[in-house]
User: Fold this.
Amino acid sequence: MDDGARGAVPQAATAGEYVALLRDVRRCSGLTYREISRRASAAGHWLPASTLATMLGRITLPRERTVVAMLAACGVPDVERWVEMRRDIEARLSERDRWETSAPQTTVASQPSPAGPVPPAGPIPSAEPTSPADPAAGPTLPADSALSADSALPAGPILPAGPAPSADAVPSDRPVPSADPGPSDDSTPTVRPVLPERSRPAAPRSARRRLRLAVLAVLGALTIGGAGTLLPNLTAAAKPSPTEGCPLVLRQGMYGPCVLDLQKRLVARGLDVPVDGWFGPGTTSGLIAFQALGSLPVSGAADAQVLDELASQPTVPAPWPEDRIGKYLRRSFPEDPSGAVEMARCLSELDPYRVVVVADGSRRWGLFQFTDTELSRFGVDPRTALDPYWNIRTARNVWSLTGGFGHWQCAPSPSM
Assistant:
């Protein structure tokens, strides 16, 4: 490959930029998702339209085989450079994860008190004029003053009795005007220091005020959340019930954030469903597969039980990759290996967890899309039907009895 062709490949440093470049490739090709899927299948790759739409709708790094299938279908010449770029990004992400995992946990040093240094012993100067001081009296409260909980002194050592001059104290050789200009029995005017009504420094007061406001905000948010309003951050922290704020049952045809949450949960469990907020056939197929693999009632609708299982049940068994399915098919159908692969690809796009609901409400299961009636005749449950071993071996038995693949009539699968 010449240097000119290699230089034509755009560069990306993050997973989001890489996906954006893939979207540009798809847009410049002028092909729809279905056309790309058909071209990828003709080139020997497995790329359902739903998988392509999900990949291009995210900002996470896609799988290498999915990228290769899309680029091959779009006719991109330098696929190897795209793969190298993806591996470089994946290596950087892995290195960053290892660094974050091995980085030592640092502890936050204790912050100094916002109040600053403890004031020297003695009366706390008041912002108002004070009366003459009595050296032996020490700091006292005026008769009409009362400290509330908000005006209590900050914690600290007990101040000894007796006045001590501070930086702002008035010199003792100068008379201090009394707060009460009335006559006095003593010839020498005295000052009784007045403790200000709010003697706390500004910083502790501000910190406590912020703390009270934060507590009130949390309590108010919890109250609003309990009333049914969805709070994106608080609801995640409080871990509410999966059905809170959503319809009791989610079924095909619905659209919105509740469906989007359901799709994300299915993807987290290892199922390939679109993440677009629309409860379409692809979401129904993934949900039915989850119900069957988890031995739940197979309804195709998500009720409270299904959502609870999605929140607690472990990941479903990983489906076979395309190359493994192809090898087992060729080994099971030595008389017509290519025909077996093409038939399974046409029926299910080589997805062992593919479930299709037909117009009359019946369902077809797995690689060779056995119907509910056939499962009943064979005496197996849907979980067994989604097992690639069982599905391919049963297809081989049917092929031996009928002498070919005439038992199956392959038609284009409905939009997933």
